[in-house]
Structure formats: structure tokens, C-alpha cells
Amino acid sequence: MQRVTDTLNFDHFQRVFTLLGRCTEDYLFIFDLQQDYYTISESAAERFALPSSQFYNASMELQKVCHPDDWDMLKQNIDGIIAGTVFEHNVEYRWMSRTGHPVWINCCGQILADDKGQAQYMIGRITELERKSIVDNVTGFYRETRLWSDLSKISKNAEDGGFLLLIGIDNFRNVNDKFGKAYGDVVLSNVADCIRKCVGEDGMAYRMSGDEMLIVMAGAAFLEQPDPARKLYHRIRKMVDESILEHGYQHFYTISGGSVYFNGQEQKDEIYVKETEFALHQAKLKGKNTYVKYNEEEYRLFVKRLDMQERLRQAVKEDFKGFTLYYQPIVNIEKQKILGAEALLRWEDEVFGRVSPGEFIPLLEESGLIIPVGRWIMKTAMQQCLKWQEKDPDFRVNINLSFIQLKKSNVIRDIDGYMTELRFNSRNVLFEVTESGELEEGEMMKKILQAFRKRKLSLGIDDFGTGYSNFRYVKEMMFHLVKIDQSFIRNITQSQYDYLVVKQFTELAHSLNLKVCYEGVETDEELKCVLKLKPDYIQGFYFARPVPSDEFEKNYLCKIQGF
Ligand code: C2E
Ligand code: MG
Ligand code: MG
To answer: What are the start-end ranges of the E strands in 238-333?
Structure first.
């Protein structure tokens, strides 16, 4: 503690102090502890709920400006300084702004004693932590910058372990867009309050980017129970729900959570945080308002899908490298001869090897790559079909169209383009679309399907019976063909139910003048069984598996006859 010397001229000093106060973003203060008199930079009096820049009854006024939760700590510190038991004032706590918001500050003061050794003045500066990007004033939590320094300390002496729980507000962007940013801040601050209450003294919370807040709980106890992060998430969720009802907020919102456990093993802190982000993302994918614990296997699959998507993008760029079309015969039952073939996409990659369509087609769809690949399929299949028409003029190729192609690209313009360029006849192609709820809903889709009809292009509904099977719709949209899904054929010899369903579907389709194709007929027994139901066409391993074009030409073109 310094001693006040005789030369300290207080008036003179205050003038210097006022000038200095104007040169810095921080607030300077002198607290006369004996007179209970406080002087602070004018800018502080403007910003905070203080009576003015100079006032008596300092202890009482400080209590008013101090956040109620922080007062005890502050009072204890000041009392200690006055009593001569505490010699340091360097504290982080909250002052209330004039608009009623808590603002995190760091107050650092030096103590000057009088000639009897009694503390007389405290002189120092107050810094708003947010200005230094340390604290976020909306939630009152430390920002991410602070997380990294804290986390490195925690995880280094965490042989005991602990967990990270990342909380996100569901559809937060909608909240902001619909009710404005100010209301968004109210939501954030409310969730933060609930987190603070549930976490208590046991852990720390940090404001991450956007609507996410990360909770760090360190201690061996957190590893012993089955999943304490889940428990904590549910406690916070319950409190958020209750607070919304209690405050009568105009909008009901929910939160999701993702967690990861650490147990002192060597792993970078960024990786733990990334893993909680992944877990939270999974929770959102699972429909939100839920919790997911990080799972290594799911993460591996996720990364694999991303890598695979990258390889697919590269393949498209390199002139569709690794893509080929296989062809599977479709047999006309009445004529006992081959009607044509379905073109089926295959992909072989240097890194991933041969990948099944069930795996890579959804990736093409998600990434939008199905649009350029779909064009390539169309052109390649039509060119192949033209070649085979030289031997079989009626040969028809079935081309699968993804819903994404219909919705997000001008598929009709592409078809028109290739038909003109290749002088392709519309009777030699049929487009298969998989039934889906979306297909039936959109007006736009109706228009697209009508455009097919206008061009006399045949349409088939694929995998019928697996989704929103609706014969009225099939009829209205002028589909020509219904392909009954192979899952019905798989059990047809054992399941009376499946047999009857297929029978009904077939009779109904025929009564509406639609052709019927059965997919997935594999055995002699199945063939015998389904022939009784009089399908128009059959496609299945019984006749042939999908094969490359040269093999198709050699083994099947004009060859499947009599059975
Ligand atoms: P899909 O259009 O229903 O094609 C029929 C699928 O059933 C093919 O699988 C075919 O190999 C398989 N299959 C045919 N007969 C049998 C059988 O007797 N038993 C069994 N177990 N399976 C049989 P693949 O080639 O794996 O294709 C799966 C799906 O991927 C296709 O179902 C289709 O939805 C999609 N797909 C394939 N190629 C393309 C394409 O060029 N474009 C688009 N958009 N989707 C495609
Ligand atoms: Mg198909
Ligand atoms: Mg199918």
C-alpha cells in the first residue's frame, strides 16, 4: 500500500484525472474511502446508473449500480480494504447500464494509505470486458476467446475428466427474422439465465457464435453417472419451457444439445469442441428439441460422406470419370421377349472403389450433382438405345429421374434438347420417377408432368407401394406404367398378404389402363407365382442382373425368349 504524501493536491489531481479520463476508453476513478466520496470519468456517468461523475454516499450508490448477484463479493472486498485485511482490488463483475442491462467490467484499483497507515484512496480504472471481446453482454457469458485459454487449463489437469455440452436454440434465425434482433437477444438471455441456474457453481458457460452456448463441466464425478450431460440438458430444457410460459413470451422456442466427454486423453481442445458441434448438428437432424451424445462411428460416417461427395464432385469435373451405365432387361410377358432395359447408374472411384447406388445417389441428390449427372445419364442412355434400335426398332430404355432433377432443373428443356440433337423418338424412352409425398403436392410438379404428356413421353411410377401410393393421382397424372416395388415380390411366395396386395394393385392398375411391371423377381418359384397375376412386364435377377452395355448386347439383346 502506498502512503499519501503531503504534496498530493487533490483539486489539482482531479483536473489531471478528468483530462486523462478523456484520453481512454476505460473509466478512471478515485474512491475516497474515508469520506465515502467517489469520482469517475464523465463517460462512465453517462453509461452507467450512477448519480453523476462525483458523489458522496459512494457505498450506497455502488450497491445501486452493481448487479445484485455481485454485490456481496464487491462489498466483502471493499470492507476488507477499509479494515486493512485486503490489499488488492482487481475484480470482474457487472454494473447496470442506464438502460438496465448488466455490463461486465473489470475494476482494478491501487490503494493509497494516509500517514496512519489507514486506507484512504482507491485509484484505478474500469474496463468494459466486452470491449476487449472477453465477455458477451447479451448472455453474460465469457466469449469463445476466453474458452480456449480456460479449456486448455481444464483439459490439461483433467485426469479426472468431464464433459462439454453445447446448447443451441432451434430455428433461431426464424426467431430473429420474425420478431427482430432485440427479441432474439431476449431469447438468448433467457436461455443463458436457465443455463446459469442449472450449472451453478459446478461449471462454466461460454457464448459461442450465433445462438450456441457451451457448458464445460470438469470433474471425475461427471464420468461416473450414466450420462450426466443428458440430465443437465433436460434440466435446462425444462427450465426454458417453464420460463417461456411464466413470462408469457410471444413465441415458443426449443433448445437442442450435443455433448462430448473427455477423460484426460491426449486430444486437442478444438477437436472436443468440434465433436460437440457435430453432436448438436445430429440432434437438429433428429428433429430438434433433443439431445445427442457424440458418437465416434456416426462422425466417421459423416466424414466419409463428405469425402465421398468431394470425390463425386471431382468425378463430375473430370468428364464423369468412373461413372457408367448398366442395363437390366425388362421382359414383355405377353410377347415373351425383351421389351427394353432400365439404365442403372454405377460409380467406381479410385479411393472408395465400387460404391452402391443406394449410397452415392443420395449424395448426388444432396449436393445437386444429380443435375449434371442426370443429363449425362440421359444422353448416354439415349445414344445406347439408338444403337440397339438398329437390331430391335422397338427397343425402349427406361431412365430414372430424381425428384431433385424435376424440382431444381429444367428437365423438359434437357429432354427436348437431346431428343432433337440425337433425333430420338419419344416412343423409345420411358422416364421413371419414384413416388413421394412431395411429388403429389406441388402445382409445379403437375405442370412438369403435364409437359411430359404433351410431348407423348411415357412416365412410370417407380417403387410403387413404398410411399404415398395413390392410384387416383397416378391416373390423373397420366402415368403409363406402375412398377411394383421389389419388397412385395420378395415375400410373395410366403406371404398371402403381399400376394393379395400385388394382385389388387395389378387389377386396379389394369382397370385404369396402366401397364404393370414387377421388380425383383429372382427365382423360378417367384416367377411361377407372379405369372398367375398377369403382369405386363417383369424385371429381375431371374432373367438378368444389370450388366455393362457390351455384355447386355452380347447376352440379352433380342435374346430373352420363351420361358
Ligand atoms: P430402381 O430404379 O428401383 O432400380 C431397380 C433396382 O433394383 C436396381 O438396383 C436393380 O439392380 C435392383 N434389382 C433389379 N432386379 C432385382 C432382383 O431381382 N433382386 C434384387 N435384390 N434387386 C433387383 P440398383 O441398380 O442398386 O439401384 C438402386 C436405386 O438407385 C434405383 O432403384 C434407383 O432409385 C437409383 N438409381 C439407379 N440408377 C439411377 C439413375 O441413373 N438415376 C437415378 N436418378 N437413380 C438411379
Ligand atoms: Mg427405376
Ligand atoms: Mg424400383
So the answer is: 255-262, 291-293, 323-332
